[in-house]
Structure formats: C-alpha cells, structure tokens
Predict the 3D structure of the following.
Amino acid sequence: MPPITLLTADDHPLLREGIASAIEGQPDMRLVAEATNGREALELYRLHRPDVTLLDLRMPVMSGIEVLIAVREESPSARVIVLTTYGSDALALRAIKAGAAGYLLKNMLRNDLVETIRKVHAGQRCIPPEIGAALAEHVTSESLSEREIAVLTLVAGGNANKRIAARLGITEDTVKAHLKSIFSKLNASDRAHAVSIGLQRGIIDI
C-alpha cells in the first residue's frame, strides 16, 4: 500500500516540527507539505491533494474554517483533521458542519495523532469524548444568528448599544432586542455573563 500523504497547516513552527517528527517514524505515512497560514494551506492542498490534511483552526490570512470550507467545496471527499487548543463546542460544531472528519486538541497530539490519521484515512470520524460531551450538552440549545454573534462580539469589545447600532446600521431598539434574545439563548444574566459564555463556548473570539 502507498503511504498516507499528509499536509500540515499551522502557524507555530514548533507544532509543525512535532507533527513532522511523529510522522517521520511511521512507515505508512509521508509528509508532503507544510503551510504557515490559511491561504498557503489552500494553495498547497490544491498542489498536492494529500490523503489527509492537518489543519489548525486559527491561522493568519485565512482561518482554518475558511480553508476547510474551500477544500471541501473543491474536494467533497477530502479528509481533514482540525487542530485546536480550544475545546469549545461551538467551534467544534462549526468544524464538523464544515466537513471535518477529525477534531484534535493540541495537547492530545502526542498520544492520539498517528492513530487519528489512520482512522480518518480509513473513512472513520474521530471526535474526542470531551468534545462529544460538550456538543451533547448544548445540542438542544438554540444557536445564535450571525447578527446576534456580531452584536455579542461588539459587546465584548466594550461598545455601548448606541455604538453597536451605528456600526451595524440598525436601531438601538433592535440592538436591545438582539441582546434579549442572546441572553435567553445563552441563559445569561447580563452582558458580561453573555460575553463570558460566548468566549468559553467559542461562539465569539476576541
């Protein structure tokens, strides 16, 4: 059998070196390219068409989610494992909905990377138990709309309702209505609590 060809995409050199070292010792795997940002990852994917892509979710130029969506649109059968330091359910759900076959926390790479690559290459899905538990915990929760996420992001940036309204081209009453909906969906008591939950669950990023 030919070796599993791999592309890694991460802006941290030490992590790329660690992955390369782990793959180097596997006779059934071959690292064909390394990307340092999202745009480079997409270009290298198009050039090499690797069997499995290891993709950091948070990268400069293009985010991992954007790369994942683009790769899956061009190659629906592409097998992508997303890498992240964040165990947030909202981020995991976005990646899974975008077509990720595997989801690995970076602190799990040493123990789980090689086996996850083999499983994903074989057509299996690999989601860590703790991520699955977080998803299950909020599976019945109503998702925030894109506009609500935009409002919550501006709240997290310290903006008052008047400024949020001006930034988004809506009225202050509409901002208040969005906040009321956000509080209800997140079961939050106030603005600070909503921001805290949003950050913890990966709904917003500041």
